[in-house]
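Exercise: predict the fold of this chain.
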Amino acid sequence: MSNQFKHYVKELLNIALPIIMGNLGFILIGAGDVLIAGRHSTDTLAAISIATAITNCIQTFGIGLIVSVSPLLSNYRGENKSAKKYFYPTLRFSMFLAFLVMLAVLAFIPLIDLMHFEAHLVPMIKQYMFVTAFATFGGYLHCAVKEFLQAFEIVVFPNLVTAIAVILNVLLNVVLVFGYGPIPSLGVLGLAIASFVVRYFMGFVLLIYCFRLMNFKNYKDFDYYKSLIKIGIPISCAILVEFIAFNSIAIFMGRVSGVYAAAQNLVCTLTTVSFMVPLAISNAIAVKVGFANGAGNIIDLKKYSFVGVVMSVGFMACSAMIFATFPEFLVSLFTQDSTLVKISVPVIYVLAIFQVFDGLQVALSGIFKGIKKTGVVLLANFIAYWLISVPLGYTLAFHYGLNLKGFWYGLCSAAVILCIIMVSMLFKNIKSMEK
């Protein structure tokens, strides 16, 4: 490995490693929910799997807009513009989005009765969604402040907070789900309350940290909101397109049987744990490429892009080997239900192939965020997931009897096509920048 290559790896890892810790912490919060729910009962796991599939699809739209904060402010810093003054506008933007998303989740709850889920799961699904709707403010506050700090490459403390939240979430889940002393067993409601508390904890701790770290003046700039929306709408829609594709599987299969929704949630939890590493690398790419783009440094832009892609794909190739080698062991970490294991294990083998291309696409997404060409990400995701993955997966699942595995064949095909589109568009964009 050349010294120059090592330099770019080190620069990316300086940002990515703390984010990896935080990302893993964030997903381990969800994994903790799955673990405790699976230990409580398969019905509990099925109910929160369907509920989170729906709420994630709604809440992800706002998150996609908020994650445009760090690449935008990184570009400002590369252009030697002041970025600190956008703290209060960032908070206002995130809280306005949180209010709209909360209303959307609450408005969706009555529709659960019309979606033909198993009758005994419906009250639990509604209960979980109602509580988590009000947790949106805490979650969006945490995301906004974390993105703001990430733009300044301040990543250690925010992600340490997330790691601490993992422990808090597990403790709250155990106490509230199973009961302890005078606290009764609350089941699904306990999981929802734990998530509510943890999200506000993460948000307010980061807010206090910011006020201790910097002095902020109230500043208003409507052009900043316009820029966030211009960059964020394609990011948000791209994430939404992908999230709905993944979560629609739990909804489609949940109508057949709750155990399929539980299996989808279990498999997604496993893949998301490994995905947090390339996602962190992608965030680092977006920051470094964004700074290079703002400074007009095409050489650094290309080198950070190449090194980031190699790191991301390399990690996911190793992860794929682990998934393909130990599928039964990985599934058994979450459940001993023989039916759930029988459904999940064959899907893990398909997932192993999917992972490599998923690592490539997320690294490419980071590059496009950095150069502020997020429309490419949206177009590629829409074509791959909605024109190919969902129709193909639905056909294989229900017309060829492959059930959940059929949907994952569709997802795997989409990941390959997504990468082909994004690679070709990236070369085209870089060539135009070099002229």
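Check your answer against the key: The CA atoms of residues 6 and 285 lie 15 Å apart.
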